[in-house]
Model the fold of this input.
Amino acid sequence: MSTLQPPDEPAIISAAVKGDNAAFATLYDRYVERIYRHVRYLVPSQPDAEDITQTVFVKAWGSIGRYRSTGAPFIAWLNAIARNLVADYYRARKHIVPLQDQDIVDDPRSGPEMMVEASLTQRDLRDAISRLKGEKQTVLFMRFIDGMGYSEIAGILKKSEGAVRVIQFRALKELKELLDRQDKGR
Amino acid sequence: MKKEDVLAICIEAVRNGSSTAEECLARYPEMRDELEPLLRLAASLQTSVPGPSAEFKYRARSRLLAEMASAGARKRGHIWPQRVKAALRPSLAALVLMALLMSGGGGAIYASQNSLPDDALYPVKLGVEQVRLVLAAGGNDRASLRLELAGRRIDEVLAQSERERPIGGALARVGTQLDGAVKDAAQAPALESRLLATQMAVSTVYRQVDLLTLLESAQGDEPAIRLALDMLRRANLIARTAYNTPAFLQQGPSVLDEGLEAGQFTLSGILIESSDEGWNIGGLRLTNVVSPYDQVSPGSYVTLRALSSDSRVYIVEIEYSDAGASEIRIEGAFEGASPDGTTWYVSGVPVQPEISQEAPSTGQRLVASGSASAGTLSAAQVRLRSERHGELEGRLASVDVAAGMIEIVQAGARHTVNVSQAAISSEEARLTLADLPLALNTEVEAEGLRSVDGVLWASRLEVEWDEDDEEEEHSGGWSDSDDDDDDDD
Done:
């Protein structure tokens, strides 16, 4: 998960826009992991997350010819496609429980929640993140779920990298306070 | 320094494995109490969503390539007459095929397609493949077909193994097809050769996995399997190099070249300059660099994966990170020492070991780290790196059950290990992959390690396991229990 945009990125995107399939395959290699994690955070099941991620890249490839750089990193465009597909997914499955109420891994013995300290469940974490306001939630999501670097986040939010680091610090501090309060409330 | 900047530095350092949380915070003791819980929380966030499985990435990429191929075929409709012309080229093979079809041999051809090397119809199957190769229009189609045929040989071997037949013969043809595919790819236009490189890089990884699985149960066929694995590994290296640097194919690399892999090296450090004259990384100079990157910004901390071949350095991959250690680190092959023995050459880079030590044998993989002085990596700590059949002991840091991957931290460095095919056990019991999350932060030992496309595959994983103390032993923790042994195959 490289956090800086490699210097060859504009040339690769430009080649992909002109129809260079190999260049698009390079973009797939670079972004598939981050797009999957983005989608996986938003939908409750692994197979659905895989279907949506796969569709993101097929759709992106189908419309790459119309892509125009706006100064935002390329992943922002892929994320926009992903979010539209996730919205379609929820529209088609109105009975699905909203993601905030679900743990990512169904088996309580498996998965990365075991890496979180004992008292902190994924659900706690998600609840707390959802209560963060505006940019704080966005920065944490972009940094830790999307795996974006500070320069990428700064480019999207049109802020300096220093400002992004400050928001990250405040967001983590507030998140910690929210989790501590949740803990005491039990 | 501001605490938000220190937090950002430590988050990145922990993420890229250059230091543990404790090591990083030890440099800022006045902020430690405030930042430690935030750093723990950041680590929890980073691991709160599992990544995709390797199997899914392969499947999704295959679908994407299939979409591209079918759209390309639709667009290329106008070149059909050219292809027909090529197909109508008079050739002995085509005439043989036509004769077979006309004499009622079509049924034999059809029946031969599922035959195995010891079957009577197998020569017919090989003959039909030769015809297809002759009829293939251009290097691109031929290379693609050769990759398919190499895969088909491995499928045959797997089928033979299931039927408990000896497997040697078909594997001998894998290398021939792979080598032919590399040579045909060099004839293809640059764009097509990059797509072929993608196809080859992916297929050779998965075919290695097939053979590694087979190796576990092979009896007497190990040499043939290992030989085929060597060829697949070299084909993968050629494909990954050619993907970013297609010019490499023009040099005529071969999967039969036993010295090819010795040219691989990894160099990490601050990129000071990159120009036609050479690249300067942390004070070390690389010349004759063939790079796909027109311009690489100086000042970044880079990890350069490259292949040294025929007096040139081909860039395979460059990874950038926000922050990194100021020291330089190289991993490469020992090529020899100066007459006085004080300077060693590791993949062309001069290295002066910190302490006098006996030179290893030529070709031995080494890891050296230190700082540059007058173009030499001086006062370097040098250690041997076991190449392919090593062991790794350390703390189990994460488990991705779906992907079958774990992370082991050893002496502060993180190693990703695929254990999906491994026998997992402890003194107490035989375990399954799903049990591993309960062993987080305990000591584990991965054995029978092999490197496949940068990921280690273990054949056995030994876990410290005590069901009575589950809560106490496996409830998670923060500090690393570093191991003095630093062998990181």
